[in-house]
Specification:
binds 4-nitrophenyl phosphate; four-stranded parallel sheet; alpha/beta
Length: 162
């Protein structure tokens, strides 16, 4: 089983998209049963909420339904449960590295590899961060989708070859 946690700041815009897109991708590949996929936020502002309607709509336009997802915050125990914890941007990555150190210092199991989503982007002008779309307009969500869709395929390949 490959356990993957996608993480952004609020767990209502980017990481719910990544969870939905990556789950759909492994379903298409016929290997969904060997993946356990979830998403979380480094912040607790939106715990319990549905994904932002703009994320929901962006994915509904692609035929993906993420409306049942609910936001949660990253827990120290996640570092012992997941194999990969995938950050949407550098800020989330730095926060996750810090949390990983705390998990280790508390003697918790800490096996997760913390990685950046766009390290798996395939193409030219490799962007570093999936930009936070929360305060922008609709196109920001479509752009996030394009980045996440591309990198999901690269992430899947990397995990399959691991
Ligand atoms: P996310 O976007 O990290 O992609 O879920 C955000 C959601 C909420 C806020 C910021 C970013 N916020 O400040 O409430």
């Amino acid at each position: 089983m490959n356990k993957i946690l996608f993480v952004c700041l609020g767990n209502i815009c980017r990481s719910p998209m990544a969870e939905g897109v990556f789950r759909h991708y492994v379903e298409e590949q016929g290997v969904a049963e060997i993946f356990s996929i979830d998403s979380a936020g480094t912040a607790a502002y939106h715990v319990g909420k549905s994904p932002d309607v703009r994320s929901q709509k962006t994915l509904l336009n692609k035929g993906l339904d993420i409306t049942a997802q609910r936001a949660r915050q990253v827990q120290l125990e996640d570092f012992g449960h997941y194999d990969y914890i995938v950050a949407m941007d550098s800020h989330n990555y730095n926060d996750l590295k810090h949390l990983s150190e705390i998990a280790g210092s508390q003697g918790l199991l800490n096996q997760a590899e913390v990685v950046m989503m766009l390290d798996y982007y395939e193409g030219d002008n490799n962007p570093i961060d999936v930009p936070d779309p929360y305060y922008g307009h609709g196109d920001g969500f479509e752009f996030c989708y394009e980045l996440i869709h591309n990198a999901s395929q690269g992430l899947y390949k990397a995990i399959s070859e691991d």
